[in-house]
Amino acid sequence: MFKYLKCYLLLLLLLVGSFVGAQSQQDSGMHHNKWLQEALTAKDIQHFKDSVTLSILKEQLKKGNSTSEQKLLKEKLDSIQLHASLDISKEMAEIDAERANTFPVPVLLFSDTVFQFYTSIGQYSAAQRAKDLTEKLNYLYKQYPYQPDSLTIQAHADIYAIKYKNEVIAGLSATDALWENTSLKILSEKLVQQINIAVAKYQQENNWTNTLKRIGLVVVLIVAILLLIFITNRIFISSVKKLVRSKSKTLSEIKIKDYKVFSRPHLLSILIQILKVIRIVLVIVYLYIGVTVLFGIFPATQKWSNNIIFFVEAPLRKILSSMLHYLPNLIPIALIVLVFRLITKILKYFTKEIERGQLKIKGFYSEWSRPTYNLVRMVLCVLVVILIFPYLPGSGSIAFKGISVFVGILLSIGSSSAISNAVSGVVITYMRPFKIGDWVKVGEFTGHVIEKNLLVTRIRTLQNEDITLPNTTILNSQTVNYTKPIRDPNTIGLVVKVDVTLDYQTDWKLVSELLKKAALLTEGVLRDPEPFVLQQNLNDFNVAYQLNAYTLQPERMFFIHSDLLHHIVDLFKEADVNMISPQYINIKKD
């Protein structure tokens, strides 16, 4: 056994010496491959020692020593093999656990992936190994002529070195083989084969003959793109000329009922703009395809071509994918909108029936039907928005929620007066103080109502002044309606009054007779019921009379009042009744 131990130590010293010699040789000639020596860590040396020990033990077993000695050697051999098997199983389990979260680093020659690294070796990461091998592949590509037979495999315990002549190209460890689920020898042979194929392929593709062919293809491609752009421009110009010449025959105005949406010149301008957009889009497509194909012709620029395709394809694919994923959300949205439209159509039908008087509901006035329909429709719209909101794209994002809160704060702060006016408008609608066309007096303004909506009411005075009154103002003010008594079957009509003061010397019976006669002479005053006179007050120096005359024309009440005054003055002059009402001032002399 002592003899075997000496042999073992001798082989180990030779191994360490070879490592040191290789280190000094690569430091002097091949700086880029120093990781190969550094990769032989203590673990790798232990694997090598185990391999040497296994070889020695197997040789001793073959020599046929004594039974006890063979038994001891067999036990030691089984122990080393079991230990190696357990190490491999443990490492394989660790790799399987990390496989899902580990992404390989590709080694590229131009646009082809030659190999992939999953793990580090020594202090060199997978990315650094891929970078080094990529540089070496470019080095091999530049070797003319390239000799595939010079690419060899050299085994160093658990590390296989790939060499081209005396230059180390790459190194593979047993861990790399475990990641690929194969043996280290097979993996090394596969890498050598892939390197030979890739280098030979690109050297063949990039020889002078193929380069000249590619240059010819580039020229043809550029000419084809320019020709397509020229043809597109000619077609555009020809189409525009035809449209201009035949606009009176082919183009007709677009109308919705009596409203002209698009005239012929306007429609012609829109069509020309559409043609311009189509032309620009086609030119962009030509250039995009041309640049993509142009970069794809040369191997050195194929990566750029792939990047250009990716930059356009990725957003389009993402948009298309988002649309496809969003399609299931359209089903509940469509159902909600369908139910909403069905309900609104039913409500609109009953609204029209109530307006026409075909449907009567006790305590519900016909003029309430349209405002009630609008109010219910608005509530339904809000409900539909609330129901649809969760199905909108991006509704759950923080940005969307932030904007919604911001808009809500703005509306709550800036629309307080608008909300109060809207509430007042709803209250006024159901109070029914007036209708559109009624003559009303609100505060100091008198006129007929020309518009009434949820926020404001507009009236037009006798002088054609349009007054806009907020609904809160109307709700907080006294409103006089001069037209409503005309519509009320229990009311005779509107009373126009005139106040007159006369002295005590004038007979009150004569005054009453003259005032009634003046009322009957006035156009627009009803004969039945006949006008009447009231004695309003007995003042210190005169008597106050009030003439009241009925009319069914509230829109002429100002003119009727003026005519009454004319007739009163004329009749009193004819009757020689003095309309001067004297006032006496008692002055005492001391």
From TrEMBL:
<keyword id="KW-1003">Cell membrane</keyword>
<keyword id="KW-1133">Transmembrane helix</keyword>
<feature type="domain" description="Mechanosensitive ion channel MscS C-terminal">
    <location>
        <begin position="496"/>
        <end position="579"/>
    </location>
</feature>
<dbReference type="GO" id="GO:0005886">
    <property type="term" value="C:plasma membrane"/>
</dbReference>
<keyword id="KW-0732">Signal</keyword>
<feature type="transmembrane region" description="Helical">
    <location>
        <begin position="215"/>
        <end position="237"/>
    </location>
</feature>
<dbReference type="Pfam" id="PF00924">
    <property type="entry name" value="MS_channel_2nd"/>
</dbReference>
<dbReference type="Pfam" id="PF21082">
    <property type="entry name" value="MS_channel_3rd"/>
</dbReference>
<feature type="transmembrane region" description="Helical">
    <location>
        <begin position="277"/>
        <end position="298"/>
    </location>
</feature>
<dbReference type="InterPro" id="IPR010920">
    <property type="entry name" value="LSM_dom_sf"/>
</dbReference>
<feature type="transmembrane region" description="Helical">
    <location>
        <begin position="372"/>
        <end position="392"/>
    </location>
</feature>
<feature type="transmembrane region" description="Helical">
    <location>
        <begin position="330"/>
        <end position="351"/>
    </location>
</feature>
<dbReference type="InterPro" id="IPR023408">
    <property type="entry name" value="MscS_beta-dom_sf"/>
</dbReference>
<keyword id="KW-0812">Transmembrane</keyword>
<dbReference type="InterPro" id="IPR006685">
    <property type="entry name" value="MscS_channel_2nd"/>
</dbReference>
<dbReference type="InterPro" id="IPR049278">
    <property type="entry name" value="MS_channel_C"/>
</dbReference>
<comment type="similarity">
    <text>Belongs to the MscS (TC 1.A.23) family.</text>
</comment>
<keyword id="KW-0472">Membrane</keyword>
<feature type="transmembrane region" description="Helical">
    <location>
        <begin position="398"/>
        <end position="431"/>
    </location>
</feature>
<dbReference type="InterPro" id="IPR011066">
    <property type="entry name" value="MscS_channel_C_sf"/>
</dbReference>
<dbReference type="InterPro" id="IPR045275">
    <property type="entry name" value="MscS_archaea/bacteria_type"/>
</dbReference>
<feature type="domain" description="Mechanosensitive ion channel MscS">
    <location>
        <begin position="418"/>
        <end position="484"/>
    </location>
</feature>
<dbReference type="GO" id="GO:0008381">
    <property type="term" value="F:mechanosensitive monoatomic ion channel activity"/>
</dbReference>
<feature type="signal peptide">
    <location>
        <begin position="1"/>
        <end position="22"/>
    </location>
</feature>
<protein>
    <submittedName>
        <fullName>Mechanosensitive ion channel family protein</fullName>
    </submittedName>
</protein>
